[in-house]
Design goal:
It is a single chain. The chain has twelve helices and six strands. By secondary structure, it is α+β, with helices and mostly antiparallel strands. Helix 2 packs across helix 3 and helix 4 packs across helix 5. The chain is globular, with a radius of gyration of 22 Å. The two termini are 33 Å apart.
């Protein structure tokens, strides 16, 4: 369950409380759901009770007590605690993490089968047409949000505009739409041009340099995009993918493979949140014609995975357990998302780095 879905769950709880006469308030348009702060518990927390206390004319904790059972009855939620002045702390069922990982795995497996059957070139040409077709298993994050929509991008003769348009062909295609690129007036896609030719950076770093900044920002064409250290976002994304593949190989050498399951280790929540929010980031990148949104989210996935990676494999004389298999499955899922996102940007995801 993603923070967006949890936000909707909280709003439905408020609506039910209002309909049943337990609260007399206007249902807000949104409910903020975030990881719990100091003193909080669970996977996520919301301050909706504090937000509604004034309009309801009740103490925040009383509002929280009213909302608690409505949220607790939601599928995927195993418990709701009240802390502090009235924060609702939500514990998710461990099955939710396993279901998320399985969804990513299934999309990756189906994508591999499609590529083997059709060939890489044919698959790239047909990818946008598959979105929403009955019986087609979409890759994780792909949807039919833009099914049937034809987007015309009119761009200037400029390298950055060309690269952005090229990435949008795949990103919009992942949402079921189709893109037609034209060099014509009036221009409707004109990112700030690069100050110099990015070609000396090489194809991958050059594309990242042009796609990572927002369209209104001037890209930096510097050797910083080539350095292999944590200060380079592209390096972190590609290194995190390589680490996910290395964890898979190392686990095989230790005699175990991954199995989706509940993961409660420190840092796992950040990985789960980043993976759960990937479909929304991809949809926003398509809707707003903004590949930079996808690029920035890949950095968030990478950073979460790099912090989590140290808990995946057994240490010392420790034997592989169900917990290790579940952690490995989560790490592999993150690697799959990173590879898929980089592919949409037209950037290679090496297995060794």
């Amino acid at each position: 369950m993603t923070p967006v879905e949890l936000s909707r769950t909280v709003l439905r709880a408020v609506r039910r409380a209002v309909e049943e006469g337990e609260l007399s308030v206007a249902v807000p348009e949104r409910a903020v759901v975030t990881p719990p702060g100091p003193g909080g518990r669970g996977d996520y927390a919301t301050n909706i009770a504090l937000q509604l206390a004034g309009p309801a004319g009740r103490p925040p904790r009383q509002v929280a007590e009213i909302l608690r059972p409505h949220i607790s009855r939601t599928e995927g939620v195993c418990d709701v605690e009240i802390t502090g002045p009235g924060f609702l702390n939500i514990h998710l069922d461990g099955a939710a993490t396993a279901a998320l990982v399985r969804s990513i795995q299934q999309g990756a497996q189906q994508g591999a089968q499609q590529g083997a059957q059709q060939g890489a070139q044919h698959d790239a040409q047909q990818g946008a047409q598959h979105g929403g077709q009955p019986g087609f298993q979409q890759a994780y994050g792909h949807s039919d949000n833009l099914l049937g929509e034809v987007v015309t991008l009119r761009i200037p003769y400029d390298i950055r505009a060309e690269v952005v348009a090229d990435a949008l062909v795949r990103i919009i295609g992942s949402q079921g739409g189709r893109v037609e690129v034209e060099h014509a007036e009036p221009v409707n896609l004109r990112p700030v041009p690069a100050p110099e030719d990015p070609a000396p950076l090489g194809p991958d770093a050059a594309r990242w340099a042009l796609l990572y900044p927002a369209a209104h920002d001037r890209p930096r064409i510097t050797a910083d995009h080539l350095v292999q250290r944590a200060s380079n976002p592209l390096f972190r994304v590609r290194y995190a993918h390589a680490r996910a593949r290395a964890l898979h190989r190392n686990a095989a050498a230790l005699g175990f493979t991954s199995t989706p399951g509940d993961v409660r280790d420190a840092g796992a929540r950040d990985v789960v949140t980043a993976l759960a929010e990937y479909p929304q980031a991809l949809a926003h990148a398509a809707a707003h014609r903004a590949p930079d949104r996808l690029a920035r989210h890949l950095v968030a996935v990478a950073d979460a995975l790099l912090a989590f990676q140290y808990t995946v494999l057994p240490r010392g004389e420790e034997k592989p357990s169900a917990a290790h298999r579940a952690r490995l499955a989560l790490a592999e899922a993150a690697g799959t998302v990173l590879a898929g996102g980089l592919s949409l940007l037209g950037i290679d995801a090496p297995e060794h780095l």
